[in-house]
Fold these 2 entries.
Entry 1:
Amino acid sequence: MSKQLNILFVSSEVEPFAKTGGLADVSSALPKAIKDLGHEIRIMMPRYRFISERRFRLHDIIRLKDIPIPVGDAVHAGNVKSSFIMNLKEKVQVYFLDNETYFGRDGVYQNPANKKDYKDNDERFIFFARGVLETLKRLGWQPDVIHCNDWQTGLIPVMMKTIYKDDPFFRNIKTVFTIHNMAYQGAFPPESFKKSGLPEEIFHHNGVEAYGKFNFLKTALSYADTITTVSEKYAREICESPEYGAGLEGLLMARKKDLRGLLNGIDIVTWDPASDNFIFRKYDAKSVEAKSDNKKALLKRFGMEFDPARPVIGAITRLVDQKGFDLVLEVLEDIVKLDAQFVMLASGDKETEAKFERLHKKHPKHITLVFGFDEELAHMIEAGSDMFLMPSRYEPCGLNQMYSMRYGTVPIVRATGGLDDTVVDHHAGGKGTGFKFEHYDGGELLKAVQRAIAAFQKPDEWKKLMRNGMAQDFSWEHSAKKYIALYRDILKP
Ligand code: ADP
């Protein structure tokens, strides 16, 4: 039996405590899957005020009260609370670093009232990085690996290699840094650097500075022992072009041998059409006919007419530039002309919402829009649509295309990042699970939709596509094993 590993997983959002995007899902599902493989993994995150003490039964770890944590010239007191998340077999322990000044707020990164980033996000995550390391020392728990995620945890590796360089507690601990999205870098003015307590000599282009700023993501990429991102294709894309690498492609290229793409999994319990309580009628690969009742129920909810021969195209998304909905706006009327119905659940950008709204007014029988965040409706759309649209400009991994395949809903995606790695084009013959287009172009998107509609009109061909998708295994176990192999690799003497 090989040695059990001890891992600390650090993230600024973890489901069900705090979530702004896919990071929260990964930060709970991956540690659970690793624990299931028999390793000791614990999570550390900030204790935002909205994380309810009662609901989650947070308790103080008494011995750790008031750890002094320096930020700039001040010293702030951190204390640590603890709770658990449940997995199939065991619990995963979660530590919350608590400090009223920095985390006693209603938002994660932004003030929910004005949707503006908090002005002291630099200090908040300097405090967090330093606090994580100080907490470990007080706990006396020495992991083999600290696994950091996104820029909010980006200073942990560099602090270990500078401030704590001579501290025997950290000497044998390795760091892994996972990039969930290159677009969010945590770039702050140079003055922020002084608050970090890091040695002055590393504020240069080969250290923590990028384009004149103190860049937390770059810092992580420079100092982590190894780097991962959430799909193989995205790992290549971010090295190869400024568009994907967001200005850090040179550094990524230089560290290419330390960069790996490990695909995210999905939560196969929450997203399972055979046991999904949100949907009108449950089904599996053997009873896909029942999907049509879900389609009927979805259309009825929005007063749309049901016709089995008319395809319903679903979309669930944040309306941000990354997701490619400017292409959809370009060709939606052409899609309507093909007599397809479009149901979209989206949150974000008011301007884009208004543009979609105008198209809905013109084609109310074919276009339904719901703006907001709605977990239940997301499940209903997955179950009730025939096709699912993800025309992303870039997509580190993407989850909805995997949910779609599990629900027998055939994805139409741009061949980028995780979308390209998880969807097999119908052209590939008998193994196809969806439709892909290469170039970021409205015409190409429309062609992919036309191909999908042509296949939809041949029931046997369509059923095969659905079944192929439903047979895929997107569980976390696969990826968790790959992470364990990676941890073992970097721990080799
Ligand atoms: P990202 O993290 O870039 O938003 P992912 O595809 O990795 O994209 O994850 C998005 C997650 O958020 C999915 O679980 C998706 O179903 C969910 N989601 C996105 N927008 C909405 C919405 N408006 N309502 C409900 N769920 C949403």
Entry 2:
Amino acid sequence: MIVVMKKGASAQDISNVVGRVELDGYKASLTEGEERTIIGLVGESPTPLREDNYSSMSGVERVMRVSVPYKLTSREYHPMDTHVALNGSQAGANKVLVIAGPCSVESREQTIEIACAVKEAGATALRGGAFKPRTSPYSFQGHGETGLKWLAEARERTGLPIVTEVMDPGLVGMVAEYADVLQVGARNMQNFVLLSEVGRSQHTVLLKRGMANTMEDLLMSAEYILAQGNQRVMLCERGIRTFEKYTRNTFDINAIPVLKARTHLPVIADPSHAVGYSEHVTSIALAAVAAGADGLIVEVHPTPERALSDGRQSLNYDGFKQMMQRIQLVAQAVGRSA
Ligand code: PEP
Ligand code: MN
């Protein structure tokens, strides 16, 4: 349930409602909007909630039941867009942000070189996996902590924040020492222990949609993070598995406007994993921006044919530069900047 306060509700009115929420055995979660405060009742209590007890209180405009199971994540609970800070910009605001870099961090020199190249082309942040969730145990698994050190060095050189994946709940603390954004990958979207742990870290999180998960599953997974008091979450549509064989996955363009309608969190699109072929990545990126994506995460490699992972879907530097130019045009056409 949420309690929407009137425009001019006093601090005393708000604290009285919070007091009542606590008396009923729930936790009050306050959202201060530009015009009014919304108080969410979260948690479990044996005391049943009665709308009348709250609607008659001073300063209360209305009381609403949140009709969806992902309470804190829902737009009903939090009508205004949440902005997530990234390199002096805000994901979820007007500017379309671009996170770019290799699928895997491969060497110190390469990481620094790619960071400089994507920065020059206008990227907001650097991506790169040091812990890789590979389908085969025989594929390259990433350089681990050494890779994180290379990423940190690339950040020092370029100022670009680092987006990197964490797979193991026990390693969240270590990865968070290097990363600016913790990526939870598609294969771990329902690793609930990991979700709670990245929530507790209070670090910014990029949560990718599982390849066989619904939008509601994704929103429920986000709820695990928000339930730990961490609102700094960006969702990511990266394609789902369908019967189609000419692409790696099927980019669910529906997910962009539908998620934006259902949640206040920023929505990022990953055209690289969604389509799986570099020659189509820019088209999907442009479509995602036109559909309202708050940002893109794109794989870039100087020599994609030699990449240790996901080379077939990685843009080379020229391809990335061209994508960045075309993104600007589409962003402008839909009233955004890039
Ligand atoms: C990645 O970003 O390289 C990755 C492994 O993505 P996903 O989890 O979406 O497959
Ligand atoms: Mn990849």
